[in-house]
Amino acid sequence: MTLLALGINHKTAPVALRERVTFSPETLDKALESLLAQPMVQGGVVLSTCNRTELYLSVEEQDNLQEALIRWLCNYHGLNEEDLRKSLYWHQDNDAVSHLMRVASGLDSLVLGEPQILGQVKKAFADSSRGHLNVSELERMFQKSFSVAKRVRTETDIGASAVSVAFAACTLARQIFESLSSVTVLLVGAGETIELVARHLREHHVRKMVIANRTRERAQALAEEVGRRGDSPQRYRRTAERGRHHYQLHRQPAADHRQRHGGACA
Predict the structure, then answer these.
(1) CA separation for the pair 18, 48 (Å, rounded)
(2) How sure is the predictor about 235, in pLDDT bands with cuts at 50, 70 and 90?
(3) Amino acid 189: pLDDT
(4) What are 161-215's pLDDT values in tens digits?
(5) Can 50 be counted among the known catalytic residues?
């Protein structure tokens, strides 16, 4: 039996690909059932956040194992195998355990040492434990990673000034503007990080927030949660033009940038 960790993250894949590989909470159980239906998979945990999607698996060794798992992931999400293969990383046995320990400790995060990831890993483990874990080796792998993450935080200074991406963005905004109470903020997207940004901004009494998302329903739902207004992408420019500063979002420059950089976001 072999332990595997495979996935993509903010270092290997652009946002557009990460969004397509995401497993939503509503579909997670079905995804795990589909994954465990693969003959070589004995147990699995799916970690899916804004910055990474990873599968932690206990598998039976077989020929073309990597190909079979890549094929499953591509078929499930409707992806081109070559597009995914370029961004996918693959760790086995001790390397898989070490990778999970780095992830849980915040050493592999966009913001080094950010505390949010440990809770996300614990939630992924708990969600998968509802009938999908199946293998004691996988459980020991996660429990040991939780223990290591705790030691890293208590015995080093990694968490002394660590913040989430959302908190860092709000802190920067407060450094730029004398007071957020006179500022209108346009938030593009409605995912987990944007939700945290919105909550931080609300705590600092920002004058107005406009949340724009590809699906207006999700933007509206988040806006209602934080007591603000949801919007559609077509209104980006109009909203930006009301501001006092000159930076605006334009479709063509963004498209040109993505074409030049293979979909990467600056």
Answers:
(1) 9
(2) low
(3) 85
(4) 656 777 778 878 888 887 888 888 888 888 888 888 888 888 888 888 888 888 8
(5) yes
Confidence category of residue 140, pLDDT binned at 50, 70, 90: very high
Rounded Cα distance between 138 and 233, Å, is 42
Please pick, among 50, 74, 170, 265, the residue that the annotation labels catalytic. Answer: 50
Binding-site members are 49-52, 109, 114-116, 120, 189-194
> What residue ranges define each of the domains in the chain, with the CATH number in brackets?
2-155 (3.30.460.30), 165-260 (3.40.50.720)
**H or E stretch at 230:** strand 229-231
Do 59 and 2 contact (CB within 8 A), yes or no?
yes
**143-153 per-position pLDDT tens digit:** 999 999 999 98
Annotated binding site for NADP(+): 189-194
Structure tokens at 235: 């209104």
Residue 33, phi then psi, degrees to nearest 5 = -60, -45
How many contiguous H segments (helices) and E segments (strands) does the chain have?
12, 7
Report the distance separating Cα 24 and Cα 107, nearest Å.
24
At 81-103, the pLDDT tens digits run: 998 999 999 999 999 999 999 99
Using the structure block, give the residue that is written with the tokens 């207004």. 229
What element of type H or E holds 100?
A: helix 94-105
Annotated binding site for substrate: 49-52, 109, 114-116, 120
Instruction: Name the residue with tokens 């990673």.
Output: 145
> Strand 2-9 and strand 184-188: pairing?
unpaired
